[in-house]
Known about the structure:
The chain is α+β, with helices and mostly antiparallel strands. The chain is 66% helix and 10% strand.
Amino acid sequence: MDPRSLTPALRVLRVCLHLLVAALLALAALRAATPAAVTAAAVTGAVYAVGSALRPVRESRPAAAGWLAALSAAWLVLLALTPDGLWVAFPLYFLHLHLLPVRWSLPAVAATAGAAIMSYVRHGAPLNPGAVIGPLLGAAVAVATVLGYQALYRESERHRRLVEELTSTRAELAAAERHAGTLAERERLAREIHDTLAQGLSSIQLLLRAAERALPDGSPVAAGHIERARRTAQDNLAEARRFVRALAPAELEHGSLAAALERLCEAGGPGPRVRFSVSGTPVPLPTPYEVALLRIAQSALANTVRHAGAGRAEITLTFMDASVTLDVVDDGKGFDPRSWTPSPGGGFGLPAMRSRAESLGGTFTVESSPGQGTAVAVTLPLPAGERV
Length: 388
């Protein structure tokens, strides 16, 4: 484990482990008081210090296994020289459990405990329950402590990841809501500009034309003022329409409504096969009309995918002399529109589509019956300037 990633508590435990090893090795050397035992204790301490300082030991399982093998070999030499070396087995338990996988660490702990018990007997001490229970109890405590900590650490990491995912999801949801709110506000502003400012300027222009025709032939000054006023109204109307186009959805930025609807049908994904067709002679539509028809088509197609269980669907855009009609038809399971009510978890698509159509003076109809598919139709009257 990288020291930089350790928490303060783990740093303290790491230092305590170092001090414990040093103290136990010093105790074994002092109690043995022989040059061979002192040398063996010093070598064991040197192997421990070098391994603790090496990064590969902390980051590589093979390197850790090699270091533990060298440390255990040095400890066994010390254990052969003095029975007091058996106390070093306790920190060795923690090292085995911390650096090795469970399938290796448990046998290593058992072997270390067995070596400590055999050393006690080999040095001539009488065999008693304490000589056996002590090393085994130490091993059991070490195993329970380390494995319990690892389980708590995994649970903590799982909770941390869940919190991070929740935070990320909340941020994505907030961004999506902001984006949806921005799009809705852009559409509202476009509709308001078209229905108020643009329509008012268009009416002013028509009134000025009527006034110009009603002037006597001998009023050139008044006619000039009316002409300039009419051109100013025309220029401002064009500017208002540019504002409306700039506020249009991204789907309409690079093409006509028909092109946007065709891309919608070709998007693919789960659901029915969708075909798009245009009937009649296409004419330019006001941006609020295009936005409303596109959003209604998207909502109707989304309902088809989620609820209809249809195999095929068709979107038709029809241009007539004084109106434009959008039809969305599917061969799904259908429903009874007369008994339909919004569900608690949603189902507000149909009222929203109806509201969009009626806000532009249009009509919205739904024809369906159980097992007979569904047909959604919206008809918008063309403004006088766009009629064929």
